[in-house]
Every structure is written in structure tokens, then in C-alpha cells.
Specification:
The chain is of the alpha+beta class. It folds into 3 domains: about 110 residues, Acyl-CoA dehydrogenase/oxidase, N-terminal domain (Butyryl-Coa Dehydrogenase, subunit A, domain 1, Orthogonal Bundle), CATH 1.10.540.10; about 110 residues, Butyryl-CoA Dehydrogenase, subunit A, domain 2 (Beta Barrel), CATH 2.40.110; about 140 residues, Butyryl-CoA Dehydrogenase, subunit A, domain 3 (Up-down Bundle), CATH 1.20.140. Helices cover about 55% and strands about 15% of the residues. The strands form 3 sheets. A 4-stranded mixed sheet has the order 1-4-5-8, covered by helices on one side. It has a 4-stranded antiparallel sheet with strand order 2-3-7-6, with no helix packed on it. The protein has a two-stranded antiparallel sheet with strand order 9-10. A hairpin with a 5-residue loop joins strand 2 and strand 3. Helix 1 runs antiparallel to helix 2 and helix 8 packs antiparallel against helix 10. The mean pLDDT is about 95. The chain binds flavin-adenine dinucleotide. The site of flavin-adenine dinucleotide has 21 residues, from strand 1, strand 3 and helix 10.
């Protein structure tokens, strides 16, 4: 997908699906802790589930600019669908980078068509955000399969996904050299999912625990080399950081639009509240914040499309800025909406709850700041 007109068409398609198919169900999915399976089917029918997968593997071969644009449109309607979507494409990216030819030829086209949903599983209860300390082990018997034992927490699409990219410990080497990425298929013996998480927001992603009890995984499901988790993970992290940023911009855009509409339509003493300077100030600030974040995001996406950078500051800066921005903007949207906005009758309280999760996932803000600080001070890695 190269031409500007093709990119515009894809964006338009995503906008229409988001508006007509995703937005109408978003509140109910949130309230019922449901899963947007129908919405994902619409994205699959439109060919969007393989957006960044190259055409030889059945995808559209779109660039990062298109990816963030489509993700923003989806998130503007339904943050749950957007997070599942980004997670799926991250898993596709891991397989693309590290998958053996046979796996790539069979698994990727099915994922690109949306017939198989992807997830990735790194977080564990004991290591949390510090993936290098993860405890799930994968031991290989000579010429045999890997035996995986351990558990994961907070996994998006847990139980719903078909293909899980799982971070595992394959040796006792220090640091990341001990870690590898394995693909585990749903239904593999010894692989089960636990209870669904009850959370503040992003409630419709089937976030759950995963358990591996001597789960036997074919050796060809290893992505890259043993100890090669970082080589597989780096391109995934780039996409994850910008995907989270795009979700944040989409949610914030929805909150801004709702606030402008509310400021015009809500009348107090016969006058629209938009007539008050305090409300005007709020929507002005929100609009500047959303636009600044979108520009930064686009700039980071364009930079990614140009190729790897020696010091990848931009994706980290973008994720930090966009996700913190979304919390502030959705908070201001609540203020514009007054008491009505604090009820479940209107979507702004959901926007606020959903935005809140994004500074925790895909590397919490504090870790991003530490990494950025080290990069800027020449201390990384
Ligand atoms: C909406 C959502 C979806 C998610 N989906 C997935 C998924 O699909 N797959 C997956 O693997 N995980 C997923 N996660 C988990 C997510 O990646 C973790 O929540 C995150 O890595 C933080 O881990 P933790 O929650 O255990 O926090 P902890 O590790 O307990 O950290 C708590 C806080 O301590 C601070 N902290 C911890 N370590 C450091 C450090 N080294 N440097 C600086 N500060 C630090 C940070 O402020 C952090 O927020 C999801 C989480 C959320 C909220």
C-alpha cells in the first residue's frame, strides 16, 4: 500500500467501520466486560487485521503512519477494540521478525485475514514491568519440544486469542540473553487461562491470567534464536509504543468532540455553558493538547517508516506525552460535562477510565522516563 490515495481510503474505511460498527457497542462492551468479537470481524472483512503485515503473507503492507491513523480512528470509537487490534498486530510483527518460514507461511496469513487473533504475554505477577526478571521457563529436551511452565497476568485477549507470543526464560544467562519468545497456540495441552480481571477501565479486552503447566510447544515455534527475545521484541516495542500513543490520541479526540458538543448543547439558565470563559479555556487547552500529541505521533510514525534510529528517543517520548495527555484531556472533559459527565449516561467517564490504563501498559510512564533520561544522559544501555 504505497499511494497517498490508497492510504486515505484505508483511513476512511477505518473511520466508517469505527463510527457505524464499533461506536454503537462500545458502552455495552465496557459495562458487561464483553469482548468486541463482532467489531473485530468487521475489521477483518475490511482487510485491516493484517494492516502492517507484508502482502506476501496476506497483509496490506501499510506503513506506521497508516497504522497510527487507523488505530486512532478505532480508539475514538472503542478503546477496547483498539487495544486488542494493536496487540494483535504486535504479535504479527513478532512472528514476521522471528518466525521460521513454515510458521510465517501458515500462521501469518490466517492472522492477517483475522481468522486467528494474536496476543502477547510478557507480564508476570512477580516481575511486573521488569520483564528481565520473568520466571516462566521453557526447557527443551534434545531434539524435542519446549516444556513451558509458569504463568502470566493482565494479558489482553487472554482466552480469546488463538496465537500467544510468550516471553520465556530459556537459560540462566544474565539479563535479556536468558529470554526467548515462543508461540503457543490456544488448545495446546498444559495451557489454560484463568479468571478475567475486573478493572477500572479497558474492560472489554478479556484481560486474564495464563497458566503453563509443562505445556509442550514445538521447537519450530521459537521466534528468532534462543536468547533472542530482544531482537524479536525491539520492532514490537516500537509498534506497541506508537500503538498505545494512537489509542491515547483517539480517546482524547473523542473526549474533545464530546466536550465541544456538550458545551454547545447544555444550557444553564437558558444559556449554553460554552458561553462561559472557563469552559472555553478548557476546550481550547484540550484541542491544543490533542493536536500537539497527534503531530508528535505522526512525526514518530514517519521516523519509524524511514528506518531504525541509533537512539530511539521518539517512540518513548511519544508514548509518554500522548498517554499522559489523554488522562489530562479526558479529565478536563469530565469538568466540561459537570455532574452528567460523572454518570454512566454519557461516555466521558469511560474515556477517562480507559485513558488511565495506558500509562500503565506498554511500559509505565516512570520506566519510560527513566529510559529516556538514561538515553539523554548517555547511560543507555
Ligand atoms: C490495560 C492493560 C493491558 C495490558 N495488556 C498486557 C498484555 O497484553 N500483555 C502483557 O504482557 N502485559 C499486559 N499488561 C500488563 C502491563 O504491561 C503491566 O501492567 C506493566 O508492565 C506494569 O507491570 P505491573 O502492573 O506488574 O506493575 P509493577 O511492576 O508492580 O510496577 C508498578 C509501578 O512501579 C513503577 N516501576 C516498576 N518497575 C519500575 C522500574 N524498573 N523503573 C521505574 N519504575 C518502575 C512504575 O511506576 C509502575 O507503574 C496490561 C496492563 C494494562 C493496564
Amino acid at each position: 500500500m504505497e499511494s497517498t490515495s490508497e492510504k486515505k481510503l484505508v483511513l476512511q474505511l477505518a473511520r466508517e467501520i469505527a463510527r457505524d460498527k464499533l461506536a454503537p457497542n462500545a458502552a455495552e462492551i465496557d459495562r458487561s466486560y464483553g469482548f468486541p468479537a463482532e467489531g473485530l470481524r468487521h475489521l477483518a472483512q475490511a482487510g485491516l487485521m493484517g494492516l502492517v503485515v507484508p502482502p506476501p503473507f496476506g497483509g496490506a503492507g501499510a506503513d506506521t503512519v497508516s497504522f497510527v491513523g487507523v488505530t486512532e480512528e478505532i480508539a475514538r470509537a472503542c478503546a477496547n477494540t483498539a487495544l486488542i487490534y494493536v496487540t494483535h498486530l504486535i504479535a504479527c510483527m513478532g512472528i514476521l521478525v522471528g518466525g521460521k518460514d513454515g510458521v510465517k507461511k501458515t500462521v501469518l496469513p490466517a492472522m492477517a485475514r483475522g481468522e486467528k487473533l494474536g496476543a502477547f504475554a510478557a507480564t508476570e505477577a512477580a516481575c511486573g514491568a521488569n520483564a528481565f526478571a520473568l520466571q516462566t521457563t521453557a526447557k527443551r529436551t534434545e531434539n524435542g519440544p519446549y516444556h513451558v511452565s509458569g504463568s502470566k497476568v493482565f494479558i489482553t485477549s487472554g482466552g480469546q486469542a488463538d496465537i500467544y507470543l510468550v516471553a520465556v526464560r530459556t537459560s540462566n544467562a544474565p539479563g535479556p540473553a536468558a529470554l526467548s519468545a515462543l508461540l503457543v497456540e490456544k488448545g495446546t495441552r498444559g495451557f489454560t487461562t484463568g479468571r478475567k480481571d475486573r478493572r477500572l477501565g479497558i474492560n472489554g479486552t478479556s484481560s486474564s491470567e495464563l497458566f503453563f503447566d509443562d505445556c509442550q510447544v514445538p521447537a519450530e515455534n521459537l521466534l528468532g534464536q534462543e536468547g533472542g527475545y530482544m531482537a524479536v521484541g525491539m520492532p514490537m516495542i516500537g509498534l506497541a509504543l506508537l500503538g498505545a500513543s494512537a489509542i491515547a490520541v483517539g480517546i482524547a479526540q473523542a473526549a474533545l468532540e464530546a466536550s465541544i458538543e456538550h458545551a454547545k448543547s447544555r444550557k444553564v439558565n437558558g444559556l449554553p455553558i460554552g458561553g462561559y470563559q472557563g469552559v472555553q479555556f478548557l476546550v481550547s487547552e484540550m484541542s491544543a493538547q490533542v493536536e500537539a500529541a497527534r503531530c508528535l505521533l505522526r512525526c514518530a510514525a514517519e521516523a519509524r517508516d524511514k528506518g531504525p534510529s541509533p537512539l530511539p528517543l521518539l517512540p518513548f517520548q511519544t508514548k509518554l506525552f500522548c498517554t499522559e495527555m489523554a488522562i489530562d484531556v479526558t479529565n478536563k472533559a469530565l469538568q466540561v460535562h459537570g455532574g452528567q459527565g460523572y454518570t454512566q449516561e454519557l461516555p466521558v467517564e469511560r474515556y477517562f477510565r480507559d485513558a488511565r490504563g495506558l500509562t500503565l501498559h506498554f511500559t509505565p510512564s516512570e520506566m519510560l522516563k527513566e529510559m529516556l533520561g538514561k538515553m539523554l544522559l548517555g547511560m543507555f544501555p
